Amino acid sequence: MLTKEYINKLKSNGNGDLKALINKKKDDKSILFILENLGYLPENFDESWVIDLLKSNNKRIRLNAVKTLGKVKNERYINRLYEIAKNDEVTEIRREAVSSIGRIRSEKAVPVLIELLKDYDPKVVTQAIRALLVFKGKKEIDTALKKLIKHENEMIQVVINKEYFARKNTSKDKLKHPQSYDFLKNKVVLGDVRDILKLIPDESFHLTFTSPPYYNARDYSIYPSYKAYLKFLKEVFQLTYEKTKEGRFLIVNTSPVIVPRISRQYSSKRYPIPFDIHHFLVEMGWEFIDDIIWVKPEASVKNRNAGFLQHRKPLAYKPNARTEYLMVYRKQTDKLIDWNIRQYDWNTVKESKVKDGYETSNVWNIDPKYDKVHSAVFPVELCKRVIEYYSFKNDLVFDPFGGSGTFGRTAKFLDRYFFLTEKEPKYFEYMKSFLKQKPDEIFHTKETEFLTLEEFKKTIK
Prior knowledge:
Layout: H1 4-13, H2 17-24, H3 28-36, H4 48-53, H5 59-72, H6 78-87, H7 91-104, H8 110-116, H9 122-132, H10 139-146, H11 154-165, E1 187-190, H12 193-197, E2 205-210, H13 226-243, E3 244-254, E4 257-259, E5 269-271, H14 273-283, E6 286-295, H15 306-311, E7 323-331, H16 337-342, H17 346-352, E8 363-365, H18 380-390, E9 396-399, H19 406-413, E10 417-422, H20 425-437, H21 442-445, E11 449-452, H22 453-459
Parallel strand pairs: 1-10, 1-11, 2-3, 2-9, 6-8, 9-10
Antiparallel strand pairs: 3-7, 4-5, 6-7
Helix pairs in contact: 3-5, 5-7, 6-7, 7-9, 8-9, 13-14, 18-19
């Protein structure tokens, strides 16, 4: 009976016992079991029997034979592996052949690896890049790799950019990553967010969470055209990008919106806001990370089904819109998330850890909040999850459309600083009213300043 222990014993003998076993076992199942359980190969390993398996009709056997040759790390197999990388009909085997060439770590492999950079399969190219980066600094290799910055595959562009073209941070007067400017902490500023953002230093915010005004669906969000609306949002998010710290997050809560019809002679118009803003967010440098679906109880949303319920005629079906999107983006960087985390001291990381019972899926069932003053208010639970999952304690979080201030109040409760902007005086005054009506709430426990744009200008340091 074949066992892993028996295979390990034979491979260590170095006297042909394993080769004899392979010659005896003619069935694919046994051969595959032996290949998959070889593990680490001793120096005296005889791999001659592996060569014949490269021609097997069983693709899994071919794949594992290629992996085995890679573990042997012998220069004499470079050309054989190259032929497999060029000609095998199975893409996975071609990629593994390139990986095996890379594991040999021989400069003799450089010419074939450079040739493989021309392959049509981006993953083959990526494997070749990884193998060549071992010899980074050699002119021939650097020249070949730098050309790939114009490769059509975006992942290849990212790798080459990080290795050769990433901009170095040369600024000497920037705040450290966890820090934020005192004049921005716990401020609510009345004015056009674009005018306000232009006054703020770059890389100030750790997190932005916002729900943009819905295009012409509310009294407070009237725009001359949908094109003008999108242009406005583009300007806001471009400025937000500049003011966001490296590698930190933007989370945009949106949903398609229906603009009611003028009369029964015309149809209503549905605008796909989240899908229309996505492309320009990515173009300006926001990297798409996740989509989270906020699900509301059906009883809480407008009923679009009444007519269909009566007649059931095809083409007239209109589902009740229970969902909104939380589109999660990260400011472009060549650094991993771990880099962001390492900028904080251990106590801050420990104190900011998310508690048990966190949401494990991208479907969040949260009841909406209703407010007599503001018609589209963030639920506290929604703000709480976003703040806890995407920021550390003492971070500065930002909402360009402050509204009723729920995000700011929740941030303060969770030991974060906030910066809110709001252009509507009635909502600005509404936020101020929390100081009078509920003096024990968080806006009161830390000095919150409510400033006009002109007043804010005077506080900038």
